[in-house]
Design a protein that fits this description.
Arc Repressor Mutant, subunit A; 2 domains; 288 residues
């Protein structure tokens, strides 16, 4: 529940489950080696801000691998393919703040999207005490009266403060050459997210990444674990699935909006991923 397999070892998390029909949600989470999403590559259209208050783990974001522990913060964007890699005997406890793109200001959202590399930071001892106080205050306000207009302003303001903290404190971690090379892939993923409705070729994404098409193709496959063409199709399919659930567009219109120039191919690809043609999928939703 709350996730869908998009093929080739990657999953997309649905905002309907994790945001619970809201613009913002907060969970107090525990994760270990046997936890559901440990080691499982996934992405989602909402933003995920994690604040770790116990334990340690390793994370992979768009191919960059790094360790995080107590007093670490991380902000995951919609274009960030990521997974947690908690080893045997390890665990983490963390607050997970999830929010939609329209929950924070456009100016701040632009800065978040333009920042290169994984968005992570470590707090000092003094900063950590203030951050925990703020997180507990956010959690209490959300629990007591999440729908109150003043509470919503309070939540939005403080989530923005946390995003600003991460942007200001993002550390220049000592990365290996392999990790440093993944920034072009992040640029390509952002390019796909903003242009998936267009007729995108591998050469277009390679240009956005600043690499030659042949090298980009090889790097993308080795970093993401799937070829560029499969990633692009999977991304378009998960957008189409959302349109089928929430819009009144016809199936052919959805295919076009999501960048599928050939309608028969869209039907075949959708059935291959979701087990049923898009028209029948929509009927199951409306009648179920």
């Amino acid at each position: 529940m709350g996730k869908k397999d998009v093929g080739k070892g990657c999953e997309v998390l649905t905002p309907e489950f994790f945001l619970e029909q809201k613009q913002f949600n907060i969970w107090d989470c525990y994760s270990e080696e046997r936890s559901n999403f440990n080691g499982r590559l996934h992405f989602h259209e909402f933003y995920e801000l994690s604040v770790i208050y116990e334990g340690t783990s390793r994370f992979i974001v768009n191919g960059s691998e790094f360790a995080m522990g107590v007093k670490s913060l991380q902000l995951i964007r919609p274009q960030d393919y990521h997974c947690q890699q908690t080893g045997e005997g390890e665990h983490i406890r963390y607050y997970n703040l999830m929010f939609s793109a329209d929950f924070i200001s456009e100016d701040l959202l632009k800065l978040v999207e333009e920042c290169p590399g994984p968005l992570c930071a470590d707090a000092s001892n003094a900063e950590w005490k203030e951050l925990l106080r703020l997180i507990h205050s956010i959690k209490q306000a959300f629990r007591l009266n999440a729908d109150d207009p003043l509470t919503q302003i309070y939540l939005r303001t403080n989530v923005e403060n946390l995003c600003i903290f991460i942007l200001q404190h993002q550390q220049n971690r000592n990365r290996s050459r392999t990790e440093t090379m993944q920034e072009p892939i992040r640029r390509a993923l952002a390019f796909i997210q903003h242009n998936y409705r267009r007729d995108i070729r591998l050469s277009d994404a390679a240009e956005a990444a600043g690499l030659s098409p042949s090298y980009f193709s090889s790097l993308f496959h080795s970093t993401m674990g799937i070829p560029f063409s499969i990633y692009l199709t999977n991304y378009r399919l998960q957008i189409a699935e959302r349109y089928l659930r929430s819009s009144n567009l016809s199936v052919k219109q959805i295919a076009a909006v999501c960048g599928f120039s050939a309608y028969p191919y869209f039907v075949t690809a959708f059935k291959g991923e979701y087990g049923t043609p898009p028209g029948a999928f929509r009927k199951q939703i409306t009648t179920g």
